[in-house]
């Protein structure tokens, strides 16, 4: 083929996850991610530091380390360097599950106990790095009935966080739950919905969360709901110092507790990754989980060195991707870079801290709920009309919501068990996997139907999707493959949008071509009469070049 002819060939359109947006769209979308995760990212170090009575300088060091480590981990997740990362718009940050173990460990010693926490954090991060290749095998235990339950629980279990934010965040504050806080959260929610509806189809509609939070903050200013004190006392530059709280000490009991928290974080991160795969239209594969957990382990180990805690993936950012339909991973790459910059220049982080928690609560209703909707969409792919799957969903949701409705439900159990089961996401995930195995795969009368499993779930197992496959055909799959599977672009040369990728109607999807039927065969009477179709339709039952079946 001549160079001129090859130049005229249309270039393969990139998957929306790999799309590089122009700066006018990239920056606001990245700021939206920063704003949505900032409160959850800074809350654990603030709670731990406040309980230990740390000085202002020590507290600033904790915050700077949390921001820098979260930014580096987020960048690693989006870029996939040397097999580290998921190549998806995934964010990393400090896990809230570390608060209770950290306070229990440091209570007798005060700030001196932080060296034990950070030493155990390094060990837990290295263990996550080593377990990543084996942990990926869990993907085979996540058919739609399991992954749908887990994703739904991720969204539902986070809604109470939005309710606490909407009331003011601090239960000991005199205005916690006041009408003014609730009105501010409600106004932010209404403004976000109005912007999303009025500007639907435009870029401003896709950053409705960011615009809603800006509007809510402006409304809060005259009522004294915006705290400008952090901005006045923030330093201009701060560089995290390795082992700023002393050389790490390895205490077996602290390490055991921290490892349990690390396993919980790995489970929650895997659940968030499955949700993100469903939202972005790039199904999660086993190598995706491996790369993501490697990034999580390295980030956690680095956090132990710099003075941060165990990292996890943030589900609120998954909901933000679902709501905004901006799936580019480079948006989250910029978000990570901004987090690093905010850690090095604390005055920038103080600007984001101006957003009142009631405003974040109003916005959180939207993006936490979007995660639950993604789980419901996944559950729609499971055969819930059958007794086994409906039973799996009902029991899983019950176990997942027990600790959400009553946080002290498992308090009288041993500490490791209470830590694991105290996370509704982890408890629901374990129950769903166990019940799916017992009811759908063990013994007689099972209802596991391979034909009911979506093609992306099947091809994702054991990295099978990485091998090049045959050209796309309606006879092979009802769903066009995605670029990362190694198969060619489907007819039309572009990838479906998020809405059309998940919801298609008869008028949306073209009907597959009619298969060629065999010619009439001469019957005994000498006239042409049909002898019927030669057996059931199968991808291999088609005419060969000679016209034979």
Protein described:
The structure is a single chain. The chain has 21 helices and four strands. The protein has helices at 3-8, 23-52, 56-79, 99-106, 114-135, 144-167, 179-198, 203-206, 208-220, 229-233, 252-280, 286-306, 315-324, 329-344, 346-352, 357-379, 387-405, 415-421, 424-440, 455-460, 498-502, and strands at 92-94, 311-313, 521-522, 528-529. Strand 3 and strand 4 form a beta hairpin. The radius of gyration is 26 Å and the shape is globular. The two termini are 34 Å apart. Residues 449-509 and 517-549 have low confidence and may be disordered.
Shape: globular
Mean pLDDT: 75
Helix content: 55-70%
Number of helices: 21
**Major sheet, described briefly?**
2 strands, antiparallel
Kindly state the number of beta strands.
4
The structure class reads mainly alpha
Termini separation (Å)? Answer: 34 Å
- Strand fraction band? under 5%
Nearest-angstrom radius of gyration?
Answer: 26 Å
Low-confidence blocks of residues? 449-509, 517-549
SSE ordering: HHHEHHHHHHHHHEHHHHHHHHHEE
Spatial order of the strands in the main sheet? 1-2
Task: List the topology elements.
Layout lengths: L2 H6 L14 H30 L3 H24 L12 E3 L4 H8 L7 H22 L8 H24 L11 H20 L4 H4 L1 H13 L8 H5 L18 H29 L5 H21 L4 E3 L1 H10 L4 H16 L1 H7 L4 H23 L7 H19 L9 H7 L2 H17 L14 H6 L37 H5 L18 E2 L5 E2 L20
Antiparallel strand pairs: 1-2, 3-4
